[in-house]
UniProtKB/TrEMBL annotation:
It is an enzyme of class 2 (transferase). Homohexamer. InterPro entries: DRTGG, P-Actrans_bac, P-loop_NTPase, P_AcTrfase, P_AcTrfase_dom1, P_AcTrfase_dom2, Phos_Acetyltrans/Butyryltrans, PTA_PTB. Residues 215-325 form the DRTGG domain. In the C-terminal section; belongs to the phosphate acetyltransferase and butyryltransferase family. GO terms for molecular function: phosphate acetyltransferase activity. This is Phosphate acetyltransferase. Residues 372-691 form the Phosphate acetyl/butaryl transferase domain. It is found in: Cytoplasm. Its main location: cytoplasm. Involved in acetate metabolism. Keywords: Acyltransferase, Cytoplasm, Transferase. It comes from Maribacter flavus. Pathway: Metabolic intermediate biosynthesis; acetyl-CoA biosynthesis; acetyl-CoA from acetate: step 2/2.
Amino acid sequence: MSKAIYIATTEPNSGKSIVSLGLMQLLLGKAAKVGYFRPIIDDFEKGTMDSHIHTIITHFELDLEFTDAYAYTRSEVVKQKNLDRDDEILGHIIHKYKAIEDQFDFILVEGTDFSGEGAIIEWDINVLVAKNLGIPTVIIASGTGKTLDELIGNLFMAYDSFKEKGVEVLMTVANKVDPKNMDIVSVGLQKKLPNNVLVGVIPINPLLGNPTVKEISKELEAKVLFGEEFLNNQAGGFSVGAMQLRNYLTHLKKDSLVITPGDRADIILGALQANISANYPNISGIVLTGGLLPEKSIVKLIKGLSDIVPILSVQGGTFSVTNQIGTIRPKIYAENTVKINTSIQEFEKHVPTTQLAERLITFKPRGITPRMFQYNLLKRAKSEKKHIVLPEGTDERILLATKKLIDADAVTLTLLGNPEEIKSKIIELDIVLDASAINIVNPAESPHFLEYATTLFELRKHKNVNLAMAKDLMEDVSYFGTMMVYMGHADGMVSGAVHTTQHTIRPALQFIKTRPGVSIVSSVFFMCLPNRVTIFGDCAINPNPTAEQLSEIAISSAATSIAFGIEPKIAMLSYSSGASGVGEDVDRVRKATEIIKKKRPELKVEGPIQYDAAVDSKVGLAKLPDSQVAGQASVFIFPDLNTGNNTYKAVQRETGALAIGPMLQGLNKPVNDLSRGCTVEDIYNTVIITAIQAQGF
């Protein structure tokens, strides 16, 4: 079952609450524990809470604290954006959402309301959040004040915008539609939208569209004189009692609110009498303006009535109060069970709930976004902290990455190098890093130095390495760091910011060696593209792999893919797709594909296949119509190092993708190589994936 659904609207006052309440009721019938989350809410007064969150939590008795149910207030988001902290906004929203995800079987996520400062940025934020949470969406638009074409066009553009960003839209809902136009709207949307998008059309409901006397009282900061127990009365309209009573009575309508100066005893008593008369409609309440209160004799008379409505006293004049009431946006709050139940009934009546529930059950995300991938990496690393050694302890980038890793509490770190030099460098670079939070080891002065040298001698004496040579080698940080991993004094090593690839991995190949059943060490990059994360291999180690080696690289890459939460669909890349191409290079890829299918028949693999056919569904369908991989590949195996290295760099530079890696595959323990042009972010990410690798040993 899908883990969540996102509710988005195209505008203010769309009546989003009716869908929230209806969906929550639907979900509680399908899942044992349902949570609720709003990325951004309106600002609220200190000591209070957002009324809509309170309504959902209270009415459905959710085991959820108010502060856990949202990430930001609107003003907090505006402030963060003014400081160019968009990345931080998204990161915090993901963090809060994932905390709720761990507690519940399903989560209802409700987008913003497009009200107040910052409304212009809200559409993009809603799309971005839904995309990065990887959850399907329901889009709502109001039919109020729109022509048929405008309403349908509004919803289609919203659908197209979400779809373009890779967000699956399960349903569109046209709300507040004139009852006589419902069929026309439904047919129009079904014609415009794809068949797999459900359509709901909900009519205008006066009960939901009008404020209660309680809402009016709060907005006017009124004093309740009488009838406090009836504040949930619905104000079906309002009229001003400024004329003589005999004339005003003819203007009363069902559930209307009477607005009159506080000294108009005739209007007050006449309205109350009309309320209990079978010849006049009921009223919802009375608002007394000007700060004027009825005389004591009138108050005494009112108290003696058997049937009463809320009577409010406000300070403003009749004209300004009337205008203020006209602008009040009705809301649904916890105590108003009539509105809540009506909303749920309207949703169930006018929305295809059975089909929607089926779509939610069968929905499967098509991939994972880079931000969610990075969040999951950090979470996994922290779940079982590992000890990683960084041999290049004096490099500025290594020290900055160390600060970031320690702050994230992701790993335990050992830096190799002269302790005084490293500490001096930390001060020189003004890095706020407590040196006692990391281990700093000078290999030549380590108490393990002789033990390590002796171990290396025993492991390599058949290669004519004597103890003196082993001691010389052990002064090299790459050898010392690798030996720490071999001896179990560290769980993994990351190097290469200063040293060459050969210098970094030679010790690992000499004595850590490959895992049982693996004959070749290879590498992969996690390519964090705008809408998904894919795996590229081999882009760093093997120049011209044979067919057997290519098959092993692919199988290792599939295992890596699974380990990091990506379903492997393997594309064995070549300059030809299917059976059309001939030549030594394409035949090698074809043979490698056959070996994979024989060794691991459960894996989805296609080869030879061209890159465009592997990533573009239309091209893939045209060239390989029966393929399970074409158009949807997640693991790309390049035929040689030249192609792989150049392609990953081209994709990285031209698309702005984050390339995490290379991560080495096939070793008995995790050792990973950095590029000498690596950034602090590259080091941070490589240490994180090394720590996760170490959890599997």
